[in-house]
Amino acid sequence: MRVDLLAGTAYNPAVMPAPVPTILVFDSGLGGLTVFSEVLKARPDARFVYAADDAAFPYGRLSEEALVARVLTVMERLAVLHRPDLAVIACNTASTLVLPHLRRRFPFPFVGTVPAIKPAAEITRSGVVTVLATPGTVARDYTRGLVAAYASGCRVNLVGSTKLAAYAEAELEGRPVPDADLAAELAPCFVEEGGRRTDVVALACTHYPLLLPRLKALAPWPVAWIDPAPAIARRVVHLLGGPVPGHEEGDEESLAVFTAGRGLNEALRTALQIKGLPAVTIEDWPLK
Ligand code: DGL
After folding, report:
1. Are residues 223 and 121 in the same domain?
2. Which of 15, 174, 264, 285 is the most exposed place for a label (fewest CB within 10 A)?
3. 35 touches ligand 1 (CB under 6 Å)
4. Residue 109 belongs to a domain with what CATH number?
5. In terms of domains, do 195 and 251 share one?
6. What pLDDT score was predicted for residue 16?
7. Mutate which of 59, 97, 167, 259 to test ligand 1's pocket (most atoms within 8 Å of Cβ)?
8. Domain end call among 227, 244, 266
9. pLDDT of res. 7
10. Do 98 and 190 lie in a common domain?
11. CB 278 within 8 A of CB 252
12. Do 28 and 93 sit in the same domain of this protein?
C-alpha cells in the first residue's frame, strides 16, 4: 500500500516567497537529536518535526517483524499529520531493516543512518575497529553485509550494548549514570591482541554521541570516534539543496513529537528548547 498525501497549496514563484521544506527526523527516542542538530545547522531555515517513538523504545529489543510493522504504522500517522518533504531515519536499528519498506510505501525521500563501517575501515591504522551499536543492529544481515563489503581486511568487533541507549536518555532527562556503569558497557569495545589494539570506534546508534564526552573520558586509550551525523546532514543538503534565501533560522516553529512522552520532565523540555525544539506534543500511540 502507498500512502497518498494531499497536495499542498500550489506554489506560484511570482507572488510567493520560495517555500522551505518540512524535514522529519525520526528515532525511537532522543538519539536522533544528535542527527537533528547537524541537519539543523545545514538547513536552519527548514521546518523540523522531530519524532521520538518512545512508546516503543528501545527498538534494539524488538523482533525484526515487530520493528518493521511499528515503524510503518508510526510513519503513516506522522506523514498524514506533518506532510514531510523528506524524512531522516535517525536510527541505525530501524534503518538497517526498514528503509526498503518505507521507500516503497511513501512518496517522499528517506535518508537513513547505517553503521559507518566503510569510514572506520578507511581510517584505521591498526586494522582493529569496533562498531558500537544496539543488539538489533549487530544482528542485522545488512550490518554483516557492510563488514563483508568494506572491512574484510579488518578485525571488526561488533558490540551490541543493551543499556547505553537508555543511559543516554537518562543523561538528557537530568539523571546521569555513574561512571562504573558506562565503563562496563564500553569495556568490550577495546580489544588488544597480538600487539594490535582498537583504534576506531564507530558509534552505530544515534544515542551514543550524546554520551561522547563521557565515553572519551572513560576510554582506556584514545581512539577515533565516528559520529555519522555530519555525513547525514550533507546527504540531506544533497537531496534538498541548501538554505532558501530570505528565510532565517527560527522563522518556522519546529516541533518535537513523542508517542508516549514518559520521560518528558523539565530537564528534558529545557534540553529540547536549547536544541531548537521549543514546542512539544504527545501523541498516545502505544506499542500494541
Ligand atoms: N537510536 C537508535 C539507533 O540508532 C536505537 C536505540 C534503541 O534501541 O531504540 O540504533
Report:
1. yes
2. 15
3. no
4. 3.40.50.1860
5. no
6. 59
7. 59
8. 227
9. 45
10. no
11. no
12. yes
The verdict on 263 and 184 lying in the same domain is no
The pTM score is 0.93
Structural domain for 59, as ranges: 10-113+231-282
**Count: domains in the chain:** 2
Please list the rounded mean pLDDT of every run of 10 residues in the chain (288 residues): 49 64 98 98 96 97 96 98 98 98 98 98 98 97 98 97 97 96 98 96 98 98 98 98 81 90 96 96 95
31 CB less than 6 Å from ligand 1? yes
Q: Is 62 in the pocket of ligand 1 (CB under 6 A)?
A: no
Return the ligand 1 atom nearest residue 165 CA: 6
